[in-house]
Description:
This protein is an alpha+beta fold.
Amino acid sequence: MKQYIESIKNCSLFKDLNEHEILEIIKNSKILTFEKDEIIKQRNDPIDEILILIEGETLGLFVNEDGRVIQIDHMIAPKTLAIATIFSSNPKYPVDVVAIKKCKILTLSKDILIHEMMKNEKILKNYLQNVSDTFIFITDRFYEITLKNLIQKVCSYLYDSFKKQKSKTIKLEMSKTELAREFGVTRPALSRVFIELEKKGIIEMEGKNLKIKDLRYIEEYATYF
Length: 225
């Protein structure tokens, strides 16, 4: 367990706890291993313990009967999985959780979490902050998926990338297939938006990079509505 302690310490649930406190909490925990593309949990699976991603990356996906896929979250270790629903009247996973890299996951029983929250205010505050952050994230994702059109979604992604990378020449960190899944659309539909923006002189594709030529247009569409 000690070999993963640095990753576990960086998990928001254990913020401000020292190593001794954390090791005491997780002393009876297990570490599970999942290979790339393995399904960790399926939507509506019951939740009876906290899962903490301590190594690797996962996606939270909605998949309907027609095979349409919407990506709700991209989770990178360290990260708690579905922490906001474990104390609901019907605790279950709201999405499919799929490994996109080899993953290590730490388990923490619900009873232990309750016990620790009762005796340690830091754990209680961290849990409540996690739940609040999750609620804000989900409402933001709902807004993006349902109220923004595809051009707005693309411009929001490009504008966020511009601010993050501090450059008008952006390295695209996701493939078009991954972006289409993120936006809940088909890849051809997404490609048409990029082609249209390039025809209008708003952007210029440079291999895996993209150059923003009209930042004002991108910003206005990104912040519209």
